[in-house]
Amino acid sequence: MCRWRAWWKGLPPLALLIAAAVFFSRAPVESDLSERAENLMNEIGESWARASFDGRDALLQGEALSEDARLKVRAELARMSGVRTVEDRTTLLPERRPFTLSAIRDGSNLRLEGYVPSRYARVRIVEAARTMLPGVTVSGAEGLVRARGVPAGDFAGVVAFGIAQLAKMPSGRVTISDDAFSIEGRAPDFATYDALEVTVRTELPSDFKLARFAVLPPAVSPFLWSAQREEDGVQLSGYIPLGDARRSLLDAVRGAVPGAAISDQLRLADGAPPTDGWLRAAAFALQQLGRLPGGKVTLSDTTIALEGRAPDFAAYDALAAARRAVPEGYTVTRFAVEPPTVAPFTWGVLRGANGLRVVGYAPSEDAKRLVGDAVRAAFPGVPVSDEMRIASGGPSAETWVAATVFGVNQLAKLRIGEIRGIGAKLSIIGEAQDSAAYGAVSTALAAPLPGGFALEKSDVRPPVVKPYVFGLRKDGQGLTVSGFYPVRQDHDALLALARVQLLGAAVNDVSAVALGAPDGFARAAAVALRELARLEGGEARLDDQKLRFSGTALYPAAVDAIRAALAADLPAGFSAEVTLEIAPPPPPMDKVSCQKALTDLLSRGSVSFQKGSAALDPTSRGLLDHLAAVASGCPEATIEIAGHSGAQGDGADNHDLAAQRAQSVADYFAQAGISAGRLVAIGYGESDGLPAANTTGLPDGRRIEFIVR
Question: Disulfide engineering: 53 pairs with which of 33, 388, 409, 630, CB 3.0-4.6 Å?
């Protein structure tokens, strides 16, 4: 008999036992399935998917990149052993177009922005950043948003590639937008810049393209650029600004030097002046280079240098003129263009009635400027026609300037004239402004010329004066000579004659050389001096051909004698206006005083005769008049006039000549008003006893002496 009541009572405990068995056996199964599912998702590259289990029933969740990924995950999970059912609660990630990610470095900080296709990609990117940029703080990783739309290829790999490039710069940015890769920043040096450019352009993952390479090269200072002409083309060196400057620059080279091969060794660099202005300055410099075969042009920041040798004067003139048309903001600080070579190297400064002309060649612009300054300083307000060109082949600039400025300073003392140079020789011709200027120029030209130059020709004429005035004034202080004289040699001879005829009196010469003297001037001056020597004091003044003669005669008869001598001896065309007074008679003297006075006069001069004759030399009239004046002061004395002969020749003839000469002096005294009865003329020969010592200084003893008795 069935005891069902007893069986029923055992069911609840059995159910509890079964439930406990089931419960405690599910946990290990679910854990095992979850772990295996996670590994499966990673293996198939779909780590975005997560599977949870209720027993053997799977609940699939996550945001898929695509519908295919959802199907793939669901199918793979369903095939996994131990899985009974799969409930798919996955969704599609939102799609992003463009799919972008940026990595921005600022020193020791790296910030990530944008989208990633998966958590795995995020982890890989962060690990790459920390590996490639040790010590750099990475931020923004948690803010990276998973999204659909990732481009084909290894997205995390290209991001890691970009971060590796950022590691080479202190700051910069890498952006991946769909399959376009962009990088920007500033390279710390040219080696890094070159490495970045090569790496980015050649090693970028193949599924991606370079959209923008905006890495700035280093900033340089000074910003140098140069272009040099070579035999077969133009070599460009230095730096070029960023942007499209290179293309514009190459076009400028082709325009300035058509057909030239271009060797482009330029480097991109930052730090240039504004590009538009820089390109204008470079084009300006290249235009000048086109005129300089073998030349070189350089830009350094905002300064320009031009170097080379001009092939001809047209090119040099154009280059020199270009210095005044430099682009705004730029200056030519070095102009080392050698002008054409000339031979002979000549130049000149010519002074005429209407101004000055500066002609020929100068060795440099600076030398020309210095001479121009000297010309303007020496000739203020005078018009100057500058016809001088710059050329090579002459003296050094320093010596040329020294010699030319010296010449200009002399030219300033001329009324009209010129200085000319050829090589290292200088010539000067012209007419002095006045006598002082003539003297100054003559003195300057007598000294060594500056710069080692030689004086090739000197033809500086004294000034021409009108009226031509010359004066002689005799007083107690001696003789004063004033006015003008035409020839220095003749003037010196006149001064020497004055010292003799005025018995050693002091001569004060304040005259000056000048042209314009009438014919016969030297003769007229000598006659005036001779007759002036006969006066106690007086003045002779020549005004062209008019002689004004005035003063005090020593005795009455001298007045007519002087008038007659002037009328007879002045050159043709000259006239004399004579105004003479007579000196009062000298006070009477005793014989001793009379002898002393006569001896004193003879110690200062000697009576001269014409050669081999008893005729008195007219130059002795001054001495004779003063001797006669002394004799007139000794009215009670007898005066012996002793004529002494020389030792040469026949003794008898010499004795006779000595006697005749003594008589000539006695006759002169008689004409002067001395009583003939008081005069005794005696001749002494070599055999006669000599009554007095020879004081004339003549070696043969010829002389006239006076003995008061």
Answer: 33
Q: What is the rounded average pLDDT of the residues 433-440? A: 91
CATH 3.40.1520.20, the chain: domain bounds: 100-216, 224-338, 346-461, 469-582
CATH 3.30.1340.30-classified regions of the chain: 19-92
Contact 511, 485 (CB under 8 A): yes
Answer for the pair 520, 493: CB distance below 8 angstroms, yes or no.
Answer: no
Judge whether residue 206 has pLDDT over 80: yes
224-338 classified as CATH 2.30.40.10: no
Q: How far apart are the first and last CA of the chain?
A: 227
C-beta neighbour count of 578 within 10 angstroms: 17
Locate 536 and state its tokens.
């106690």
Read off the pLDDT band of 697 (50, 70, 90).
very low
DSSP 341: B
* Residue 225 one-letter amino acid: W
Find where tokens 């390109």 sit: 279
- CB within 8 Å of 431: residues ≥ 6 apart: 414, 415, 416, 417, 460, 461, 462, 463, 464, 515
Beta bridge partners of 507: 479
Query: Where does residue 695 fall: left (phi above 0), alpha (psi -120 to 50 degrees), or beta otherwise?
Result: alpha
Please say if the pLDDT value at position 695 is more than 60. no
pLDDT of residue 217: 94
pLDDT band (50, 70, 90) for residue 45:
confident
pLDDT, residue 105, reads 96
Under CATH, to which class is 19-92 assigned?
alpha beta
- Alpha carbon distance 294, 229 (integer Å): 5
Residue of 606, 371, 376 whose CA lies nearest to 500: 606
Question: Residue 5's pLDDT is what?
Answer: 59
Cα separation of 403 and 455, whole Å? 10
pLDDT in tens, 442-499: 999 999 999 999 999 999 999 999 999 999 999 999 999 999 999 999 999 999 999 9
Using CB atoms within 10 Å of the CB of residue 381, give its burial: 0 to 12 exposed, 13 to 18 middle, 19+ buried. exposed
CATH number assigned to the domain covering 346-461: 3.40.1520.20
Least Cα distance to 104 among 60, 159, 65, 154 occurs for 159
pLDDT for residue 26: 80
Query: So what's the architecture of 591-708 in CATH?
Result: 2-Layer Sandwich (3.30)
CA–CA distance, 309 with 339 (Å, rounded to integer):
6
In tens, the pLDDT along 53-88 reads: 999 999 999 888 788 889 999 999 999 999 999 999
Answer whether residue 411 shows pLDDT above 90.
Answer: yes
* Stretch 30-47: mean pLDDT: 91
Phi, psi (rounded to 5 degrees) for 445 = -75, -20
Amino acid at 185: G
Written as six digits, the tokens of 524 are: 């007229």
Q: What pLDDT score was predicted for residue 2?
A: 52
* DSSP per position, 400-451: HHHHHHHHHHHHTTEEEEEEEEETTEEEEEEEESSHHHHHHHHHHHHSPPGG
Structural Rg of the chain based on CA atoms: 62
What's the fold here for domain 469-582?
A: hypothetical protein tt1634 (3.40.1520)
Q: Report d(CA 380, CA 371) in Å as an integer.
A: 14
If you average pLDDT over every residue of the chain, what do you get? 92
Q: How far is CA 362 from the centre of its chain?
A: 13
Tokens of 610: 């014409």
